[in-house]
Write a structure and sequence with these properties.
The chain is an alpha/beta fold. The chain is built from 18 helices and 17 strands. It is elongated and about 75 Å long. The protein starts with a strand and ends with a strand. 43% of the residues are buried. The protein binds adenosine monophosphate.
């Protein structure tokens, strides 16, 4: 079971605190080789997640971190892991004592580089393995002896199956971007990997969002975990001009076409909740002669790169994206972010609108909110701590007034707890769903 320790806003409070420089790296009691590396990296003060996670991970506890890439979460787990491995190493042959599982090769490579950077004065060694490339060099790196292995699930299981990787000495497991692993279909692989590890271990679990399956997985592999929730820092909420359009599902595509032709959308990013609705919307817009491209995780890497490139170069003015595909999407001068579907997780809203209004530029965010999505709007307003300006002043207004939402809106998949997380629904022995 998880010990719920941090609530909404804690992360943001901590971020302010660390920005004000109250907390220093010196206070963690990190060893000198790590302090030297931190100073060489040019880090002055810990980020919010580092401030909260490092002491706890150093103390050996399990962790559930709800935080996105960009918050400094890699150092939040890498520094205490390196400290543990350094201070408890023995003279025997090197064995893999820490395993980091990451969904994509890009993220795995980034994490591997961070371990190299932070661990450069410790003498500890790491290897990074992922699919899509020959395994020879990866096998060689492992054969030399490593302390930390960073891996994507498929290649890891391959090399375990071939006896190249042994996981029986792993003391610390990190699962990074667990929600993305779910989206990419790796969740069974992840469960298989967990079953290969010693039961006695420390587990650090990170996910930007917490859909039911992820929370269930976390519950099943964490022990007495502390939960840390870092809301993405919200400069976007200040620099982006945000408007909610009350419109019902059947008319959303008409409103979108209306806004795309009327508004000065020079570069618009349109978010849908699912891959299927991204594809459907793309077809509809093309039928209306609006040139668009689409990215989501069912498209191949090269298709995604091509779409992104066309969008960046301005060959298409509108890109339709599902959330996961858009993570880390770094395109300058996005004039509009349009939430065609309201995001189920309030953090996702902040993340999405953060694609525009970058570097102080003006940006606009439009959110299409159907009657059944008004509960998500409530959660967003709770997170950003203010109401969003809404309009019905457009050609396709919802016939249901805003105030009617309480009676008409069904609850989301599970009830929302005090900290904004959705309580999962569990099935009882009869197969009926029940609330926990
Ligand atoms: P991550 O979320 O781990 O991908 O980190 C995002 C970026 O923040 C990386 O470029 C890190 O080098 C950088 N970073 C991590 N911790 C700090 C810190 N305490 N101060 C400044 N930059 C940091």
């Amino acid at each position: 079971m998880l010990r719920r320790s941090a609530r909404h806003g804690v992360g943001r409070k901590a971020a302010r605190k660390s920005n004000a420089g109250f907390m220093q790296f010196e206070e963690f009691g990190l060893i000198e080789p790590l302090m030297r590396a931190i100073s060489e990296e040019g880090y002055a003060t810990p980020t919010a997640i580092q401030e909260q996670a490092i002491p706890h991970v150093l103390a050996g506890g399990d962790l559930l971190g709800c935080a996105q890439t960009g918050t400094g979460k890699t150092a939040a787990f890498a520094l205490p892991i390196l400290q543990r491995l350094y201070t408890t190493r023995t003279d025997g042959p090197r064995v893999i004592r820490s395993l980091v599982v990451s969904p994509t090769r890009e993220l795995a490579a980034q994490i591997g580089e961070s371990f190299v950077a932070y661990g450069r004065h410790t003498g500890l060694r790491q290897a990074t393995i992922f699919g899509g490339v020959r395994s020879g060099p990866q096998r060689k790196a492992i054969a030399k002896g490593i302390d930390v292995l960073v891996a994507t699930p498929g290649r890891l299981l391959d090399l375990v199956g071939q006896g190249v990787v042994k996981l029986n000495h792993v003391e610390v497991l990190v699962l990074d971007e667990a929600d993305r692993m779910l989206d990419m279909g790796f969740i069974d692989d992840v469960r298989r990997i967990v079953r290969l590890l010693p039961r006695e271990r420390q587990t650090l679990f990170f996910s930007a969002t917490m859909p039911y399956e992820i929370q269930h997985l976390a519950d099943s592999i964490l022990r007495n975990a502390v939960e840390i929730r870092i809301a993405p820092e919200a400069p976007a909420a200040e620099t982006v001009d945000q408007t909610v359009y009350f419109v019902e599902r059947a008319q959303k595509h008409l409103l979108l076409a209306h806004l795309l032709t009327g508004e000065s959308v020079s570069r618009g990013l349109v978010f849908t909740r699912t891959k299927r609705s991204a594809d459907r919307l793309t077809r509809t817009l093309r039928e209306s002669q609006i040139p668009v491209d689409v990215i989501h995780s069912d498209r191949s890497q090269s298709e995604r790169e091509r779409a992104l490139d066309r969008f960046k170069k301005g060959h298409v003015r509108v890109l339709v994206a599902s959330d996961i595909a858009s993570r880390g999407l770094d395109v300058d001068d996005i004039s509009h972010v349009i939430n065609y579907d309201m995001p189920e997780e309030p953090e996702t809203y902040v993340h999405r609108i953060g694609r525009t209004g970058r570097a102080g530029a003006a940006g606009q965010a439009f959110s299409f909110c159907g009657i059944e999505e008004r509960c998500y709007l409530d959660q967003i307003e709770k997170l950003i701590r203010r109401p969003l300006p809404a309009t019905s002043d457009h050609p396709f207004p919802s016939p249901v007034p805003r105030a009617a939402k309480a009676a008409a809106t069904p609850a989301p998949t599970g009830p929302v707890m005090a900290n904004g997380w959705k309580k999962p629904l569990r099935r009882n022995l009869l197969g009926r769903r029940r609330r926990r």
